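Structure request: Cell division control protein 6-like protein, Candidatus Halobonum tyrrellensis G22.
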Amino acid sequence: MDLDARIRRRQRRNGDRRLVRNYESLSPVAHVEEPTGRGPTFERLLDHLDPVFDGNLPPNAYVHGPAGSGKSAVVTALFAHLRRLPTETRSVIQTSTRATSPPSPAFAYLDLRTTTSEFAFYRGVLGALTEESVPEHGISTDEVRRRLHARLGGSRTGVVIAVDHVDTAEGVDPGELRDRFAGLPSNVSWLAVGREDPEPAELAAYTATSVRVGRYPRQTLVDVVMARASTGLAPQALGHDLARRVADWADGDAHDALAALFAAADRAERDGRTRLADRDVAAAIDEVPRPSVSLGRVLALPPNEQLVLRELVDLDASERTSVTETTDAISASPAVDLSAGTVKRYLYEMAETGVVERVRSEGETGRGRPPSRIEFRFPPTVFRRLYDLGR
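Returned structure:
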């Protein structure tokens, strides 16, 4: 329980009739410091990482589970806490009256959705090991790797790297990722996080342990929704009955549950109300496609592709009846400084990767290939709001 947050909410209550107090708290791509209802998963991961408390490296491991099961939330929260442990460069002061823990390995977290290149991968690991900034430009991948080896060459404890979204990141296949791991110094342990079960997951063959994260139980997901609403919305804005409805629909997927909560809150906020109604939740549920693409993946796209999507979500359905019409409508926007050819290419590429979907238009009787309309594979209201908040 965050008592300070509860006090701040009551301080804001008088004279502030806004429904949404903090969109970040509602965001399905934001992680909290202590995820709700994942104690057993934390314990299993801590069992695997137990050697670090004696200053040793654990073996490699694979964390897996379905979309929306909280894998990223648990791993990011755990590594944030572990980074506070004393390391060789952050060791505590020795005294004659207090025993101190041995220095632990360093910890690094990498998201492959935003760390796709080999250069960014090694730069991310090096950046976690030093307080000095690592250049983003004007330096080669070989030089970054050399600095990383030099930095870890004299280390007795090494580093543990969590690499998230190993099987859903675009442009990084398991073989390439395995080669990157092979390019790391020997005093490195890694924790791969993905959706596939260990049997088909290629990286699992190089691990000693696998940790499964299951879908959220219904009541736990209700608690997750209510916890986010308590920090992001006005007091009593969300009733338990609506939280249960969202959790029942989401079927253990926290990403989709929070996307629906976000969309419902945004709808009620735009209507000037201070409580969510049944119609808000119904409309939000209708907007979230099943299955949906993770909004984290959408927001990790290059800026120009996100810009195209931002214009796309504002188009009427009549402007999305074919790729050509959609392209013309987006290209005509004064906010888009891209050629029609580039816009069309982005739409086709995003359709190939599943961010959007091309659906064959009905009722076409002419010759040739029938036109395809563009449909979203993500909740457009949530993307629109998160994109605008990030500008």
